[in-house]
Amino acid sequence: MEAAILDPKIADRLGHDEQVIRTDILSNEFWNQLIGLQTLLQPFLSVIISLEANEAKLSHVFSDFWWLLKQTDRPGILEQEVTRVILSRWKFLHKPVMTIAAIVDVSLPEVRRITFAQLHSHSMLQEVSSWLKSNYGDMNAAKIFAVLVKLCNKTQPFNDVFVMENSKLLDPIDWWKTFFHEKYPEVVDMVAKVLSISASSGPSERNFSTHGLIHTKLRNRLGNERVQKLVFMNWNLKLQLQNQEIDCIQFFDGLSDDEEE
Fold it and tell me: What are the φ/ψ torsions at residue 105 (nearest 5 degrees)?
């Protein structure tokens, strides 16, 4: 970097600002600030990668937002400005269904789960109850709301050790259907819908790309039904290969050195 800055050709391009830029780039303060900026932006990259993944659910939007807010909650003018921007964007994009999805997604890590205190402190209860009333009617909304409160407070039946341990092993929708399809049918129906919504348009855009690779100009006589089947097979083959690769890695990781030899 120092050699590049001292290059006469680069100095000519920089003009009158050359000395200022050279001094800044060659100073330790500049690089310390750059490292600080990188540290500040790293959580944003993690969230973007997380939300663009095929398996990202709507519930991840809410949990990732609050996690991101905690990562930037530090003293400093830049950090305060970043926090202000995050809150502003969240106010623009937030919908009550995101909060509901985060509540019912029992696969979220404990540190990212919503507590009843959080709902109260951020005045989300009114938003959630209004959304439930508009979509399920007063009677069913009251039943669903009561279940959500029990889940947040971890009261019966959500304090059963066996039931909650299975939430770590089963898909969230399967977990609700397995343990509560008879007791809370309205909630199970809602969970199946809200947790089937992806966090971003990334997965659907990748699906369109697969359509384009299959339904080409040379294969333009393929019917819609056949194209859909080929895309379905393409994605499921990828998933199967991924699972086989994971199984192989886990198998070899489980072997001792003697067994591998």
Answer: -80, 95
